[in-house]
Specification:
Layout lengths: L14 H23 L10 H22 L3 E9 L4 H6 L2 H4 L2 E10 L5 E4 L8 E7 L5 E2 L2 E6 L8 E5 L21 E8 L3 E19 L7 E9 L11 E3 L5 E8 L8 E5 L4 H10 L5 E2 L4 E3 L2 H7 L7 E3 L13 H4 L7 E5 L2 E2 L6 H6 L6 E8 L2 E8 L1 E2 L4
């Protein structure tokens, strides 16, 4: 326990009185001068009027952003015809398997001449027709599917409305600036019925990995996602997650099931900027290609194979499929079977950010620095990314 020294009984100290006087005078001056010098700092945070002003200001900002971004958001309706399987054909079930079903989603306008970004699962293989409705109620049926990203960890596709030139493109922001707690807005075609529904929330988590899909056969692994508590309802897929500057920083793609509430996931725009740039420049999707097959490492694999690290991309192949494709950028850079890629341009490669995610931010023709381990020793090399082969 701290000891407190007692003041001698008969000793009078004038200092406390001086301090009280100075404090009193300073307080008086503060009450007079303060409001003039620092008027914005004297409002009580606990006052009802101030609280109402804050809420009103936030509401006005959200309304303004929704009004500004809304014209850049479209509703998508698709028709899909089920394809007959081998069993259907064998047992005469082809008619039932050819049944047409309808689905709905959301899209983001990227250019005035009608380029739209959405989720791949919104316009999945088997879609026979696509219809797009803009925020002003105009419906367009002459829609082309420009490209679907073939990689299972990128749920993104691009459409084109033919014969238009007056649409309002969305502003694409820098998703790397987002932090946990930042306010965001989601806009989408909720439940496939309620066009341009607006919900608000915050970024609840960063770099989330999930497995998304309607069934085990259609499941895909997505990584480095934003988690948000802004409600993302069925039909919101492919819609924008927007920051408080009215910029799109995410592509809404999934929502947690099994009773979870307000847990949605969005692909950061920085992870798909190369796809956007490729579509807008060339009208087609050029996928950057390094030419390796790998296993994402963890503690269990490290222990089992006596590896020097539990993080990275372990280049492993089979007799039929080598770890490093002959003649690929990785081959030209000198990478070999058994190497462990630990960094791309200084950024760690791990379970939260696997090699494919790190490579996604770079385009065809860009040169990257690859850090890797070989026989326990760290080495570096440079690889120039090429266009992925189509077969």
């Amino acid at each position: 326990m701290e000891k407190i020294a007692k003041t001698p009984k008969k000793q009078v100290n004038s200092l406390p009185y001086v301090m009280v006087a100075v404090a009193f005078i300073a307080g008086m001056l503060g009450s007079i001068v303060g409001p003039r010098l620092f008027p914005e700092r004297i409002t009580s945070l606990s006052s009802a009027s101030n609280g109402q002003r804050v809420v009103s200001s936030q509401s006005e900002l959200i309304a303004s952003i929704a009004k500004d971004v809304g014209p850049s958001v479209v509703s998508i309706t698709v028709k899909t015809q089920a394809q007959p399987t081998a069993l259907d054909q064998l047992f005469g079930g082809g008619a039932a398997s050819g049944q047409v079903s309808e689905g709905a989603g959301t899209g983001i306008i990227l250019s005035s001449d009608g380029v739209i970004m959405t989720n791949r699962h919104v316009v999945a293989e088997g879609v026979t027709s696509v219809s797009i409705t803009t925020s002003d109620g105009k419906q367009y049926d002459n829609v082309e599917i420009l490209a679907r990203d073939p990689r299972t960890n990128f749920d993104v596709a691009f459409l084109k409305i033919k014969g238009v030139n007056n649409l309002k493109p969305a502003k694409i922001g820098d998703s790397a600036k987002m932090q946990v707690g930042d306010a965001v807005i989601a806009i989408g075609n909720a439940l496939g019925e309620f066009q341009n529904t607006v919900t608000t929330g915050i970024i609840s988590g960063l770099s989330r990995p999930i497995t998304a899909g309607d069934s085990a056969s259609s499941a895909e692994s997505l990584t480095n996602l934003f988690q948000t508590d802004a409600a993302i309802n069925p039909g919101n897929s492919g819609g924008p997650l927007v920051n408080m500057n009215g910029e799109v920083i995410g592509l809404n793609t999934a929502v947690a099931g099994d009773g979870a509430q307000n847990i949605g996931f969005s692909i950061p725009t920085n992870d798909i900027k190369t796809q956007i740039a490729s579509i807008l420049k060339d009208g087609k999707l050029q996928i950057p290609y390094m030419g390796v097959r790998y296993i994402v490492l963890n503690e269990a694999l490290k222990a089992r194979y006596n590896l020097g690290t539990a993080e990275g991309a372990w280049l492993k192949g089979t007799n039929a499929a080598p770890a490093v494709v002959n003649g690929s950028p990785a081959d030209k850079a000198g990478l070999k079977e058994g190497d462990i890629v630990t960094k791309v341009n200084g950024e760690d490669v791990n379970q939260d950010n696997p090699l494919a995610t790190r490579l996604s931010k770079y385009g065809v023709g860009e040169t990257i620095e690859v850090t890797y381990l070989r026989d326990g020793k760290e080495q570096k090399t440079k690889a120039t990314l090429e266009t992925a082969p189509t077969n």
